[in-house]
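Write out this protein's structure.
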Amino acid sequence: MPAFTPSLPDFRSDLLRAQFGAQVDFLDQVSHHAFDTARQLSELNVRMTRQMVDDGIRLGRALLACNDPLQLSSVALRETQPTAEHLRGWQSSLMSVLASSGATLAHEANDGGWQAARRTTGATSGEDVGAAHNPT
């Protein structure tokens, strides 16, 4: 009957536990980042919705106050200018939130827990997996 060596399974279980812990930490960071980005997008959309409702009310009041039917188109064009500016501001803010979100996620993936998980995986298999994917 072969002899049982308890140190080898304990060593591997410690490495697997460390790898699992590193992966859980990384997923925790990613989920916090995703929720923060979702919160920012929700706030941006709520603010835009409020502005659109206010702009619609202002447009409706301006059209109702117009006495000359021939002037309705010029009043409508004049009142839609702030709405177009609000839409451009919303689009700019949206792109800013998405760009910063992508940059933060890339930074966390390259410098954070994912690299620690790779190093732990390399230690269990005897090779450095992270060096092949990240030449820095």
